Amino acid sequence: MSGGAAYRRVRGIPPCVVWFTGLSGSGKSTIAARVFETLKDRGDNVEHLDGDGVREVFPSTGFSRPDRNEHIRRVGFLAGLLERHGVVVLATFVSPYRESRDFVRSRCRRFIEVYVSTPLEVCEARDVKGLYTRARNGELPNLTGVGDVYEPPADPELTIDTSAVPLEQACAMVLARMAEPKPARKGTTKP
Question: Which of 106, 130, 134, 182 has the most crowded Cβ, counting Cβ within 10 A?
Fold first, then answer.
């Protein structure tokens, strides 16, 4: 028996890729960071791949549709490899296009798409990075939700609107979905 198979048997959550998608400021990274800490504290083998951190490693990646698709495909390939080696992967990327998210799904054994559906006006009010202000001033012409389209998932495993769901509840929802042997489709934001 391989070490990976033995490792999977003793863990509470089997390896998977949890893909958080939504607009900038929606709460993707905040939820994933809390889930990450919870899993790490329990001793799970977990990694958090975040859009900002990955772009620091690949700074020349652009923001055109082809560039974004290529970027997400690369990250998805990496996430799938980590999953195959017994890692729970939390990936937080705007990933605005269905085609690139579908590609990532095809690369993973257990893919859980979490659509952080927080409305644009709430994300803009938060504007923690100043991106929406810059986009409205014409400095960021391709910002998703303002100058570029966001294609919501057609059938995510879980949907969370952080304007209606508190952080601890959102974290609990994600952990519960991850613990399911075969995650059911279509999540809910209702308590």
Answer: 134
Helix and strand counts by DSSP (H, E) for the chain: 8, 5
pLDDT in tens, 32-86: 999 999 999 999 999 999 876 665 666 666 677 888 888 899 899 999 999 999 9
Known catalytic residues?
A: 95
Residue given tokens 């054994």 in the structure block? 109
In the numeric block, which tokens belong to residue 96?
A: 């605005």
* Residue among 104, 36, 50 at smallest CA distance from 73: 104
Q: Helices 28-42 and 167-179 meet at what angle, rounded to 10?
A: 60
Residue 92 is classified by DSSP as: E
Tabulate helix, strand, coil % of the chain (nearest 5). Answer: 45, 15, 40
What pTM value is reported for the model? 0.86
E strand residue ranges, 2-157: 16-21, 46-50, 88-92, 111-116
Start-to-end C-alpha separation, the chain: 42
| Both structure tokens of 40 | 């790490």
Q: Which residue ranges form the domains of the chain, and what is each CATH number?
A: 3-179 (3.40.50.300)
Q: What is the DSSP letter of 184?
A: P
Separation between Cα atoms, residue 123 and residue 110, nearest integer Å: 29
Residues 6+ apart with CB under 8 A from 126: 25
| Residue from 43, 2, 182 nearest 109 by CA | 182
